[in-house]
Write a structure and sequence with these properties.
- This protein has one domain.
- It has 3 helices and no strands.
- Helix 1 packs antiparallel against helix 2.
- 0% of the residues are buried.
- This is DUF2304 domain-containing protein.
């Protein structure tokens, strides 16, 4: 578990650096994809899923 959390943190750091740099290239997108797969396999995945679902429900309930 410690190794998987370290990998997730490392990929997250790379993603933030690439986003701040101003543009994502193919390699940057690949690292972002790897971050997504690592997060999906971690213990944080249910929390992220619930947060996304709650946000989608909130946005869908807003009337213009």
């Amino acid at each position: 578990m410690v190794i998987s959390i370290s990998v997730v943190l490392l990929l997250l750091i790379f993603t933030v650096i690439y986003l701040r740099h101003g543009g994502l290239k193919f390699t940057h997108a690949l690292i972002c994809t790897l971050l997504g797969f690592c997060l999906a396999g971690s213990s944080v995945a249910p929390t992220i899923s619930q947060g996304i679902a709650a946000t989608a429900d909130m946005v869908s309930s807003v009337r213009p």
